Amino acid sequence: MFHAYNYTCSCGASMEDYFHDTRDGDPPEHFDCPRCGVAGALSRVRVYALRPFGPLWSKIDDMEARMFSAKQRRMGMQIRSNKDISAWENEQGLFRPTETEQRVWSEESRHDGCIIRKIQRESGSEAATDYVDTTEIMDATGWDKKETEAWKERQNAVRIDPSAFEPAP
Question: How far is CA 125 from the centre of its chain?
Answer without folding.
Answer: 33
